[in-house]
């Protein structure tokens, strides 16, 4: 039977005890809910992969409580000082050369590890008081829509994940930005996220590369970081995308079967139709991003034949939203 933990002192102690004993606990973060377990115990890490049905080629991110912990598990470059000062705690993951302390299972056998210092108050407190390094990939079956509410976790897993902390809705509702720093002179954007590439470039004072045209053409890239598969974050219902600023596509207008239409922004000409939805009233991507996965999950449970979604404007956080949409709709 699933137990939803609250933020009480008693429940908090139970959560820390569970993690110390090698159990998995779904925890809220500012990005999405994570399926957390001790990252330095291979048997616990293996359970994460098994519960998520995640392929071992897809590495996990290690979550830390403080900056001093970085040197315990990785080789940080000087550039990390600048990034940490600006973006940690927060939704930035950095990929660094790893130390032997990190199990190969965590890193897909590669000599690098992704590290993040989350800002959500609950998981920060767990990290600080437990002393653990936590692996915490999104708490959903591999390839499916990420959870942004506690109920999404139990809807996906049922009794397979019996320990869930209910921390409300996630602030960003979209996974962290991942920056590769294996060569600090040539930083690489491995996954777009809440922190835009332009902000990272401003802090580092140099251009950040995009590998293998992966985020432009959405082809396969080397799995040194999660979230790079061509098809990912996908609902079970087939999805179609249409350009930002377009009206409803002809496929929706002509459809004789129940099709959901999702506009990025509410428009005056939005069809008066119970099957029409929108992510934001005024076009603000900070409003749209946290709603994206929750809305797609909702529509995925309504027996629609297809979901048609308008893409976001391609700048800043809009590019991150489009990354998730393109992967969700990939065939």
Describe the protein.
This protein has 331 residues and is an alpha/beta fold. It has 2 domains: 3-217, Alpha-Beta Complex (DHBP synthase), CATH 3.90.870.10; 239-329, Threonylcarbamoyl-AMP synthase, C-terminal domain (Rossmann fold, 3-Layer(aba) Sandwich). The protein has 11 helices and 14 strands. It has helices at 9-20, 42-52, 70-73, 79-87, 121-130, 150-157, 197-204, 214-217, 250-253, 285-300, 317-329, and strands spanning 3-5, 25-27, 34-38, 61-63, 92-97, 112-116, 134-135, 163-165, 177-180, 188-191, 239-242, 259-265, 276-280, 306-310. The strands form 3 sheets. Strands 2-3-7-4-6-5-9-10 form an 8-stranded mixed β-sheet, with helices on both faces. A 4-stranded parallel β-sheet has the order 11-14-12-13, with helices on one face. The chain is globular.
CATH hierarchy, class of the largest domain: Alpha Beta
What portion of residues is helical? 25-40%
Catalogue the unreliable spans. 213-222
Dominant shape: globular
How far from one another are the termini? 36 Å
CATH architectural name of the largest domain: Alpha-Beta Complex
Secondary structure category: alpha/beta
Number of strands: 14
Biggest sheet overview: 8 strands, mixed
Radius of gyration: 20 Å
Beta fraction of the residues?
Answer: 15-25%
Return the CATH topology of the largest domain.
Answer: DHBP synthase
**Spatial strand sequence of the major β-sheet:** 2-3-7-4-6-5-9-10
Can you count the helices?
A: 11
Helix-strand sequence: EHEEHEHHEEHEHEEEHHEHEEHEH
Mean pLDDT: 92
Number of domains: 2
């Amino acid at each position: 039977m699933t137990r939803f933990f609250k933020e009480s002192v008693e429940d908090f102690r139970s959560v820390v005890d569970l993690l110390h004993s090698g159990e998995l606990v779904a925890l809220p973060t500012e990005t999405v809910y994570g399926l957390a377990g001790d990252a330095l115990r291979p048997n616990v890490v293996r359970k994460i992969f098994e519960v998520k049905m995640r392929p071992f080629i897809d590495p996990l991110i290690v979550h830390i409580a403080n900056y001093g912990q970085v040197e315990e598990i990785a080789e940080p470059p000087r550039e990390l000082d600048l990034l940490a000062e600006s973006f940690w705690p927060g939704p930035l993951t950095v990929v660094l050369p790893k130390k032997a302390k990190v199990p190969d299972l965590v890193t897909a056998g590669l000599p690098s590890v992704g590290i993040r210092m989350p800002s959500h108050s609950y998981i920060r407190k767990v990290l600080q008081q437990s002393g653990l390094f936590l692996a915490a990939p999104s708490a959903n079956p591999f390839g499916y829509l990420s959870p942004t509410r506690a109920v999404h976790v139990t809807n996906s897993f049922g009794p397979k994940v019996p320990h869930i902390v209910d921390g409300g809705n996630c602030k960003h509702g979209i996974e962290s930005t991942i920056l590769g720093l294996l060569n600090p002179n040539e930083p690489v954007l491995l996954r777009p996220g809440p922190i835009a590439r332009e902000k990272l470039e401003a802090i580092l004072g140099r251009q950040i590369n995009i590998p293998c045209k992966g985020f432009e053409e959405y082809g396969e890239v080397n799995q040194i970081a999660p979230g790079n598969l061509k098809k990912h974050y996908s609902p079970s219902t087939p999805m179609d995308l249409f350009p930002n600023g377009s009206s409803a596509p002809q496929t929706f207008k002509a459809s004789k079967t129940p099709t959901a239409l999702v506009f990025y922004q509410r428009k005056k000409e939005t069809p008066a139709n119970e099957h029409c939805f929108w992510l934001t009233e005024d076009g603000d991507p900070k409003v749209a991003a946290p709603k994206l996965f929750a809305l797609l999950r909702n529509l995925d449970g309504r027996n629609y034949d297809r979901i048609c979604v308008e893409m976001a404007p391609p700048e800043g956080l809009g590019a991150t939203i489009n990354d998730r949409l393109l992967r969700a709709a990939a065939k």
